[in-house]
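Mods, move this if it's the wrong board.
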Amino acid sequence: MEALRAWRASSNLLGFAASRAAKAAPAARPLRPHVRCCSPAAASTTKPPPPPPQDRRRRSASSSSSSTSDRESIRAIRLKKVEELRGKGYEPYAYKWDRTHTTKELQDGYTHLENGEVCADVAVSIAGRIVARRAFGKLVFMTVRDDSGTIQLYCEKDSLTEEQFEQLKTIIDIGDIIGANGSIKKTEKGELSVYVKNFEILTKSLLPLPDKYHGLTDVDKRYRQRYVDMIANPEVADVFRTRAKVVSEIRKTMESFGFIEVETPVLQGAAGGAEARPFITHHNSLQRDLYLRIATELHLKRMLVGGLEKVYEIGRIFRNEGISTRHNPEFTTIEMYEAYSDYESMMNLAEEIVTRCAMATHGKLRVDYQGTEISLERPWRRETMHSLVKEATGIDFNSFGEDLESAKNAARGIKTESNENISLQACSSVGHVLNEVFETVVESSLVQPTFVLDYPVEISPLAKPHRRYAGLTERFELFICGREIGNAFSELTDPIDQRGRFENQIKQHNAKRAAMTKEVKSTEDSSTITLFLKFEWIQARLFFPRNDERALPRHHQPQYCATVLY
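Not the wrong board. C-alpha cells:
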C-alpha cells in the first residue's frame, strides 16, 4: 500500500504560486512627530534634553490604549449617525438590494466609452463597500468595491435630493456598504463611473478600516482577522479563490480515476495514524475523553478492508503542536487509498493531480514563484535520498553500513549555509543521520518538482521494505520550492513486521526517556516526558489491542496505496 501525503490544501499544491498575492507586509514603523518652532524666540532657545527612553512595554501599552480610545470615540460618533438615520425613517441595516451588475461586469461592458461620454438610457444598480471618498463642493466621488472589483460612484448635487446629498457629506463613512442606482458615465479623465441618481445605505460601519495608504501591516492581525485583511488587501481573496479551484479540480481528478469520497469520524477513541500530539475533548453522554483526529488514515484503511478499492477524504486535521504563520494547529488534508497499487503509481497520480490543478488555476505549467520559474511539465525528477545527499555533500552513506559513529563523524564535517553544526544528538542509526543531513543540506535546494525516493526503514515505520535494497523502504516525498508537498509509500501490510517496528519504536522512546530522566530536574519536565510516552503507547495499542498478535483488522487486507494532500 502506498500513502501520499501532500500537506495543507489551504496553501497547497499550487498555493506556492497563489501566495504571491498575499505577501505579508512588514510591521508598520511607529510614527514619531517632529515639532518645528517657527518664531525667532523659539529658535534662539536652547533645545531641551531629550526625555529618558521609555520602557518598550510601556510605550506599547500606551499606544494600544490610545488606539483603543480612538476607536471607541469613532464608534460613538457612528452610533449617533445610526440613530440619526433611524430617526429620519431610514433603516441603516437593509434586508435586501436588487443589483443588475457587478463592478467587473460594468468595467468589462463599457470600456468602449469615450472620455466624457454618458449612457443616459442605461439603468444599472450596484452594491459594495465604500473604500475611498472625495468631496468637491457639489460633487462627491466614492470608490465602491464588491467581490469582483471596484468602480467609481459619480454623485452630483443636481442629480440627487438635497437630503441625500447631505447624507453623502455628513452621514456616509468609508467602510459603509451602499447600494446605488444610475446610469453609466466615463469622466473627462477616463474613469468609468456610475452616475448616481439614487442610493441607499445598506450597512452602516461602526469601526474604521485600516489606513488607506499603509493598509493592514500587522502580520498577527492579518492571520487572526482574515476578514479585515481581505478588506485592506483585496488581493488576498485571490488565494481563497485559487484554493477553491484547486480543491474542486482535485475532486474532479479523483472521480475521473474512480475514487469514492468518504467522511470518517473527527472524534476518535484513540489518536492514531501519525506521530503528533492530539487535542483532547470530553464527551458528556459517554463520560469519556475523546481525541480530535490527527490523521484520517486509520478509518480510510478500514474502508479498504470492507471492500472499497479506491477511497479518499478531504478533511480537517487537528494537531496540538507548534503554531506560526506557516503552521496551523488545524488544517485540511486529502488522503487517498488505492488497492493493488504501490508508490510508483502514486508518483504518477501526484503528477496528474498537480498538473491538472495548475492548468485549472493558471492555464499553464510554468508558474512564477517569487521571481523563480517553476516548471510543472512532466515527467518530474526522481532521485533517491542517498543519491541527493551524495550529490550535495560527496558522502556515500551506503558505505557506512551499520557504523553509526563513522556516519556521525562524516556528517560533522559538512558545512551548512548557516555555518551551524548538524544536530546529531538524537540520531540513533545511520538512517537517522542520513535523514538529518538531507533535511539540513538538501531539502531547501529542491526548487523544481522532485520525488525523493527510498527512505531508511528507521524513519518510515508504515512503509513496505524495499523489494531490492535492504534497510530502505518504498517511500517518497515530493518537494517543490524547497517544501514538502507530498509523502507517499507502499503501505506495510505485514502485521508481524508492523508489530516489530512499533515495538522497536517503543524501546527507542523508553531509552530516550531513561536518558532524559537523568537530566530532568523539575517535576514539570518529568510530566511532559510521561505524557509523550503515554501518547506513543496509545498509538501503539491502536494497532495491538490487548495481546492480539495481529496489527491489522481481522480480515485480510489487499495490497493498497494511500494519498494525502494537505
